[in-house]
Amino acid sequence: MRLTLWTGLVVLLIDQASKLVVVRWLGLMDRQAIDVLPPFLTFRMAWNRGVNFGLLAGHDPRPWLIAVAVVISALVLAWVWRSPPGRWAAISAGLLVGGAAGNVLDRLIYGAVADFLNMSCCGLDNPYAFNLADVAVFLGALGLILFTGDKKPATRGGRNKTP
Predict the structure, then answer these.
(1) Nearest to residue 23, comparing CAs of 114, 113, 106?
(2) Alpha-carbon distances of 93 from 9, 10, 11, 38, rounded to whole Å
(3) Vertex 148: Cα angle to 79 and 10 (nearest 5)
(4) Among candidates 121, 102, 110, which has minimal Cα distance to 42?
């Protein structure tokens, strides 16, 4: 549990620090775009008031989105506490919880999630932006899929022994 909590805290701090540096100190809110490694990486300001890719942006889904993030995070933390997973699953859970907390904090402070990372390649112009919390949530969910589950050794014939 401790590894999950520390991972989540580190992710939250890195996410919020990145937003502070890029959005505030580099003035992305005023400049709207900063070429970093064009066309591969551009900082492009986007306030996401909806869900992924701005879906539901015409409504005010904040209370629901905050509630869903808190409930999912609480369920993940309860699962880690009840049946501690292996090291990589615990880190994955921390990535997911820390990323969710970063986006929830944005919604509480700004009323929207601050997205600023924009990546394009090979002649394709990607209009969407994301942030480090989004990356952490994605990697955490992927890690939970890869590093959890019933891993009983198979016997001959491909069947597991049952007691």
Answers:
(1) 114
(2) 12, 13, 11, 33
(3) 65
(4) 121
As annotated, the active-site residues are 115, 134
Distance between CA atoms of residues 53 and 43, nearest Å:
16
Surface-to-core class of residue 153, CB atoms within 10 Å of its CB (0-12 exposed, 13-18 middle, 19+ buried)? exposed
* Tens digit of each residue's pLDDT (9 = 90 or more) over 99-138: 999 999 999 988 889 999 999 888 888 888 999 999 999 9
Burial class (CB in 10 A: 0-12, 13-18, 19+), 35: exposed
148 SS3 class: coil
Q: What would the mean pLDDT of 6-16 be, rounded to a whole number?
A: 96
Work out the angle at residue 38's Cα, subtended by the Cα atoms of residues 36 and 40, and round it to the nearest 5 degrees: 95
Instruction: Read off the DSSP letter of residue 39.
Output: T
- Check: CB of residue 98 under 8 Å from CB of residue 9: yes
Total-model pTM: 0.80
| Distance of alpha carbon 143 from alpha carbon 5, whole angstroms | 16
Task: Report which of 60, 30, 59, 61 is spatially closest to residue 43, judged by C-alpha positions.
Answer: 30
Structure tokens, 44: 């492009």
